[in-house]
Fold:
Amino acid sequence: MSTKVAFIGLGVMGYPMAGHLKNAGYDVTVFNRTKEKAQKWVSQYGGSMALTPSEAANGAEFVFVCVGNDNDLREVTLTPTGVLTSMSPGSILVDHTTTSADVAREVAQVAKSNSIAFLDAPVSGGQAGAENGVLTVMTGGEQALFDKVQPIMDSYARFSQLLGPVGSGQLTKMVNQICIAGLVQGLAEGLHFARSAGLDGEKVIETISKGAAGSWQMENRYKTMWNGEYDFGFAVDWMRKDLGIALDEARNNQSSLPVTALVDQFYSEVQSLGGNRHDTSSLLSRLENMRKGT
Structure:
């Protein structure tokens, strides 16, 4: 397989995603702001690294981006060293960053003016999903473009879906984060109640997970939550970024998200307790601290 691809951003998600592309046989060039991370990736997987996004994207048929936020996306796409300065007409830019729908449309418009195609394609599944190649990809754009990119994304995804025009992927990711916020808060409250009532948490979850209360969060996070361990996934800082995007969009489309707004506030309290880099299940730590009066 000789298809040349570039991957921009080697964080906890992008690093293994790019690795899956290389393992699938694609000719991969990577860029990361911290050069040492790119060097480490090349030493582990092979391929090559570039010193700028533009250099990485030069000659690539497909360029994948997975960075932090709206401004990071603009930096690696729209600036003089961004990928759009070197991508060839007819090539495809795929953004896996979780951003606002507005910036997805902004980048898509600039790409289109340069005869470059664009898909917004945020992912769900966390670090474990990226490492195991079982992410879910929510995509916005044209069907023909999606059909070209989907087989490549299959290198690190177990499911991908086209949801509508550009921006639809980001809007769907907002729905995803809204749902997760409520689920994790409910699980945190349930475990907190179980502990306060003197119940055996292991037996409680073994029982209720077989019924209507069961969820991915319950199956995968209850043990670490019960033990007060919060180093197993998506950080609170990033969740607050995502919920902020969703709440901004809700104000624009006049959606009412009272639970989401409340959970966002709870996450801000976790941050104030020093839990910025704890995973999202650390909502329980807030409740436990309240119980202890700290």
About this structure: The chain has two domains: 4-165, 171-292.
